[in-house]
Amino acid sequence: MGDTVASAIERARLVLDAGGVARARVEAAELYAALVGRAASASWLEREEPLAAPLAVRLAEAAHRRAEGWPQAYAAGRANFRGWWLAVDRRVLIPRPETEGLVDLVLAWLRSEGAERPLVADAGTGSGAIAIALVRESFARAVATDYSAGALQVARANAAEHRVAERVELERGHLLAPLRGASVDVVVSNPPYVATGEWERLEPGVKDYEPREALDGGPDGLAPTRELVAQAWVALRAGGLLALELDSRRAGESAELAVAAGFTSCVVVEDLSGRPRYLRARRPADGRH
Fold it and tell me: pLDDT tens digits for 48-89?
């Protein structure tokens, strides 16, 4: 007799428990949910159903990776973002809940503007999470950039899986350089913002697995933000939006960079935990510096 969902998850739990993973039962269920692309409740609702051998093998492999210390999303190869699933591996940053708030900020602005088919530039797209979410949830089109060819492969696969490939143009290059003079309505990014000196103090699950180039923001943690603000001034149409995710410890400095560049309506927005997390700024409608 073959595996059921319940028996395969129980074996995964034993592997996780032996590896010292806290909440092993919950994590085993979450690994299964990630692999099948459904809610965590799937492990209970489908518990008596037979499990195909290839999926049972994938669950066992994911459990062993997690027991070895891999972050859960890398162990499963999937991350949940805004209720749907993205492929992720060590070439891309794992999407965080905070970045969902950045998407919400841009969507609210798009609704308030009422623009038809606005063009959004997502700088440093990684898995493609931001660009894909924006085109899924609005009428926007997106140009998504990344310097990493590997990251763009992941983003391309995700755009195809979510059937938005025709509305997400992927370009290789540093931040907004691939735009090559094109004008956009929105510049959005979750840029690297960890100061180089802070790297060794990060949690092992971050510094030992996630791509450093997606996290290290230079000596003061602001180098990519500084570049983005300058590039966005050139790329944005008059009245366009600049929306960035920030390190809460450097939110004020980030806002000052935007003000100094000439942006108006510069506001630091808090995340759901009450931390200053996002910069929202506007290029003046008359285009003056």
Answer: 999 999 999 999 999 999 999 999 999 999 999 999 999 999
Alpha-carbon distance 11 to 58, whole Å? 12
Q: What is the 3-state secondary structure (H, E, C) of 74-134?
A: HHHCEEEECCEEEECCCCCCCCCHHHHHHHHHHHHHHHHHCCCCCEEEEECCCCCHHHHHH
- Backbone φ and ψ for 116, nearest 5 degrees, come out as -90, 125
151-179 average pLDDT score: 98
Residue 71, Cβ density class (10 Å: 0-12 exposed, 13-18 middle, ≥19 buried):
buried
| Cα separation, 9 vs 146, whole angstroms | 37
Computed on alpha carbons and rounded to an integer, the radius of gyration of the chain in Å comes to 20
Q: What is the mean pLDDT of residues 223-241?
A: 97
* Tokens 């939110």, located at residue: 251
Q: How many residues does the chain have?
A: 289
Q: What is the mean pLDDT of residues 36-54?
A: 91
Q: Using alpha carbons, list the distances in angstroms from residue 199 to 105, 174, 204, 212, 221.
A: 28, 22, 10, 9, 10
CA 236 vs CA 102, 163, 185, 186: distances in Å: 18, 27, 6, 7
User: Token pair of 181, please?
Assistant: 């003079």
- The whole-angstrom separation of Cα 83 and Cα 8 is 24
Is pTM beyond 0.85? Reply is yes
Q: Following CA atoms 19, 22, 25, 28 in sequence, which dihedral angle do they give, to the nearest 10 degrees? A: -60
- The encoded tokens of residue 102 equal 């950045």
The DSSP letter of residue 96 is: -
Report the DSSP beta bridge partners of residue 2.
Answer: none
Kindly list the structural domains of the chain, giving each domain's residue range(s) and its CATH number in brackets, ordered by start: 5-76 (1.10.8), 97-282 (3.40.50.150)
Look up tokens 């285009």; give the residue. 287
- Distance from C-alpha of 175 to C-alpha of 161, rounded to nearest angstrom: 24
CA distances from 51 to 66, 67, 86 (A): 21, 22, 22
The amino acid at 277 = R
Q: How many helices (H) and strands (E) does the chain have?
A: 11, 9
